[in-house]
From TrEMBL:
UniProt keyword annotation of Isomerase present: no
InterPro entries xrefs: AMP-bd_C_sf, AMP-binding_CS, AMP-dep_synth/lig_dom, ANL_N_sf
Key words of the record: Ligase, Phosphopantetheine, Phosphoprotein
Lineage: Eukaryota, Fungi, Dikarya, Ascomycota, Pezizomycotina
Gene3D superfamilies recorded: 3.30.300.30, N-terminal domain of ligase-like
GO process annotations (BP): amino acid activation for nonribosomal peptide biosynthetic process; secondary metabolite biosynthetic process
Source organism of this protein record: Venturia inaequalis
Database matches in Pfam families: AMP-binding
The UniProt record lists the keyword Ligase: yes
GO molecular function, one term: phosphopantetheine binding
Domain of life: Eukaryota
GO cellular component, as recorded: cytoplasm
Domain AMP-dependent synthetase/ligase: 252-590
Record's protein name: AMP-dependent synthetase/ligase domain-containing protein
């Protein structure tokens, strides 16, 4: 069953409403049902019998919002308060489906009163607007929700609820207590999640039982004390700050093992002694060029030993390096240069001519030239650099057409690498393959980790195929590599017998990948992280093929799950919310954010109250990841997707809004664009970055008042649309990196919008997924399909 992921859901009718509690069972093939009970709780002083059901309904809605991302919630309700002994079989024609739109600023007492006053009038016309509560006979709407709530005043009445995945049973005892029970399907929910749901429900009910007139819905605490205690234990181990500079850690290894290999590369090897000598010579040279602490220096290289020497030299000179790629368009490079006030670039013979006239000082590195440089008179070359100085700047996608520059400092990276190496048991035996492009975030880990640990940085030669990758791993005798799942699944274990650890990340792990490596001696590790938090902040090295999205435990710092709408609301174990990352591995922030009008929204300015309550001795910075996740009872975290428009493809982070911003330059005011990541419904095809276009002057475009859904076409198979697509593609090539340029273009006859006239991204994605699946199916049947237009009505 799908997990709703859009809090801005606007639905036209109850028949289209989905309020499905997500799966949590580790045994989806299990049969039968489980049941757990909670300790009896007070009934409360009531003015009428109707008050208890109203409170129970309100409490269940507030419980559902902890586990389902939505604005509109529904559940089935059935009660039995008669005084006969008849059994209470689930009659779906008599049960009622309660539907309500939750408003966080509404007083809890008002919310309860609305349930109390609502009569069982069948209203099946639309999802409630404003603060309405609608009811409808649930017999024909089983597919709308999978939870039910029962209230009975006679414990002898038997209840059967086999058709629902989750059923809350509340019984009024003779002692005027409420006995709560959760009955659940074993194929849907595991015992630990069931316990979490029931304890959350009881905790919320107890709060609203004595709610004051001023208590608002968003102030209700959904996290029971027992959960807080467990979460406190999970988040106890935050490492102290490593107050050292990255280059000092590497130089320590150079002095300890000068004759051992530090870099093994296709263009020659370097010992630690040679790396020390050459990087010191170059560092002294760039200091003469004006590099100081907080000076940014560009670095652009093909894979080589020169790139390693250059980055280490920049660090030793006190500066911070910015790795770029020569294929980036001039507009992109110009933005980076102007905003960082960079005047120096280190590069090799491949790119030196490309940058002359763009960067004031271009330094071409060559082995003979490096050895001719005079030895440094001072060691260290720069005595002023401190652990809180910048060490690198990482540029990633931004939402305004301007790339976002993340400033990392020495102590953050040093702390993260220290924890990363400890968790994966890395050391002087580590031979890390430097696979990623130097402009990508993970390349910093591939270069720094082995050198700081006294291991070997393995630099491969040019690679065009997976066979080339396997060959380079064998030749360099690499024993650890980081790959995206898209690449990793194509690698055969038998072709890389030297590989001991294969780290994967950037995308959810497909089942086939986990199965493929499960029986191998190579350890599969799922990594999770981002540039703002020194790349890796969680890892999972015990992967089950049914849990490919489980990212495990924090590697550095702590990870918290909060309400996506409020960082002040800590969610219970099992709740679905936004990942908040805390610790000493966070970056300093974004470059020139004030000048660009960009806020540091991702970095919390005010520490949530719950952190000072659970860990009063901590004062680390915190970062809102924008990712949705769920904390399991074992302390591991499952990644559930993005809450915004940031996409991940082949390990690269793409802001859909930035791509759309660039595309709009080639569209009229009446045209529209939606960019999203699509794959087939069955997940068998590689994902594709897709641009959905509505062209107002196109012959096939229709008025947006058309009922139903728009018709989708293959834009490249239509003459008029193809011309516009070619214009867009040519324009994007000058403004964006290649990985941010859509590979698939779909024409829409009109643009789906929500009731509030906002772009309905969720509908576009659903329609696009079905279209994409149909396109691939047609292409497998018809070789001439690529030359004809595909029409798929929805």
């Amino acid at each position: 069953m799908p997990l709703p992921t859009d809090r801005n859901t606007n639905l036209n009718g109850i028949d289209r409403l989905k309020c499905i509690f997500p799966y949590s069972s580790k045994t989806p093939d299990a049969t039968g049902r489980g049941s757990i009970h909670a300790s009896p709780c007070d009934l409360g002083i009531t003015s009428s019998e109707s008050t208890v059901p109203a409170r129970l309904k309100a409490a269940w809605i507030l419980t559902l919002q902890c586990f389902i991302i939505a604005d509109v919630f529904c559940f089935e309700y059935n009660d039995c308060v008669a005084d006969n002994d008849a059994s209470m079989d689930q009659d779906r024609d008599q049960a009622t489906l309660y539907v309500t739109r939750l408003h966080r600023s509404e007083p809890v007492q008002s919310f309860i009163t609305r349930f109390e006053q609502k009569q069982r009038t069948l209203v099946a016309t639309k999802v409630p607007e404003s603060c309405e509560i609608s009811t409808v006979a649930s017999g024909s709407l089983y597919h709308q929700c999978n939870t039910s709530l029962y209230y009975r005043t006679n414990a002898r009445k038997e209840i059967s609820c086999q058709k629902m995945d989750l059923a809350i049973l509340v019984t009024k005892s003779l002692e005027s207590k409420l006995v709560m029970e959760l009955d659940y399907s074993l194929s849907h929910t595991d015992a630990e999640m069931a316990q979490s749901i029931l304890s959350t429900f009881q905790h919320i009910y107890t709060q609203i039982l004595n709610a004051s007139a001023t208590l608002l819905i968003h102030n209700v605490d959904p996290c029971p004390p027992s959960h807080r205690k467990r979460i406190q234990e999970f988040t106890n181990n935050v490492s102290p700050v490593n107050k050292k500079c990255l280059h000092d850690l590497i130089i320590d290894q150079c002095r300890q093992r000068p004759d051992q290999i530090a870099v093994r590369s296709w263009d020659g090897d370097l010992t630690y002694g040679e790396l020390d000598d050459l990087s010191m010579r170059l560092a002294s040279h760039v200091v003469e060029l004006g590099v100081r602490p907080e000076t940014f220096v560009l670095s652009c290289f093909e894979k080589s030993t020169l790139a390693i020497i250059a980055r280490l030299a920049i660090l030793r000179a006190g500066g911070a390096y910015i790795s770029i790629h020569a294929s980036n368009p001039p507009v992109y490079l110009e933005s980076v240069i102007i905003r960082t006030k960079t005047t120096i670039l280190l590069t090799d013979s491949y790119f030196v001519d490309h940058f002359r006239g763009i960067v004031p000082t271009v330094v071409e590195l060559a082995p003979k030239w490096l050895r001719s440089l005079p030895k440094a008179l001072n060691d260290p070359v720069c005595e002023d650099v401190q652990p809180d100085n910048a060490c690198l700047v990482l540029f990633t996608s931004g939402s305004t057409g301007t790339p976002k520059g993340i400033i990392q400092i020495h102590s953050s990276y040093a702390t993260a690498i220290q924890d990363y190496a400890r968790n994966l048991h890395l050391g002087s035996h580590t031979r890390y393959l430097s696979f990623d492009d130097y402009a990508f975030d993970i390349s910093n880990l591939e270069f720094l980790v082995p050198l700081i640990m006294g291991g070997v940085c393995c630099v491969p030669g040019p690679m065009k195929t997976v066979e080339d990758l396997a060959s380079q791993i064998r030749i360099l005798d690499a024993n650890i590599v980081f790959l995206t799942p898209t690449v990793a699944i194509k690698l055969e274990p038998a072709d890389v017998p030297c590989l001991e650890i294969m780290c994967v990340g950037g995308e959810p792990l497909p089942k086939d990948l986990v199965r493929k490596w499960a029986a191998q001696s190579t350890r599969l590790v799922n990594q999770y992280g981002m540039g703002e938090v020194a790349i890796c902040c969680a890892y999972n090295d015990q992967i089950h093929h049914l849990e490919g999205s489980k990212i495990g435990r924090p590697s550095s710092g702590a990870i918290w799950i909060v309400d996506p709408a409020s960082t002040e609301t800590l969610l219970p174990i099992g709740g679905v919310g936004e990942l908040i990352i805390e610790g000493p591995h966070l970056s300093r922030g974004y470059i020139d954010s004030t000048a660009l009008g960009r806020t540091e929204a991702g970095f919390l300015k005010v520490i949530p109250r719950w952190l000072s309550q659970l860990h009063p001795d901590r004062a680390h910075r915190m970062y809102r990841s924008g990712d949705l996740g769920r904390l399991s009872a074992d302390g591991k975290i499952t990644y559930l997707g993005r809450k915004d428009t940031i996409l991940k493809l082949d390990g690269c982070r793409i802001d859909a809004l930035e791509v759309e911003h660039q595309v709009r330059k080639f569209l009229s005011d009446k045209d529209s664009i939606v960019v999203d990541l699509l794959d087939t419904i069955d997940g068998q095809a590689d994902p594709s970055l897709t641009a959905f276009l509505y062209l107002d002057n196109h012959p096939l475009s229709t008025a947006p008042v058309v009922k139903g859904a728009p018709v989708l076409y293959d834009a490249m198979s239509d003459g008029d649309a193809r011309a516009k697509v070619e214009e867009i593609k040519n324009g994007l090539a000058l403004a964006l990196p290649r990985y941010m340029i859509p590979s698939t273009y779909v024409l829409m006859t009109w643009t789906p919008r929500t009731a509030s006239k906002k772009l309905d991204r969720k509908k576009v994605k659903v329609l696009g997924q079905a279209f994409y699946s149909g396109v691939l199916e047609e292409m497998t049947k018809d070789k001439d399909y690529a030359h004809r237009m595909k029409l798929l009505p929805m």
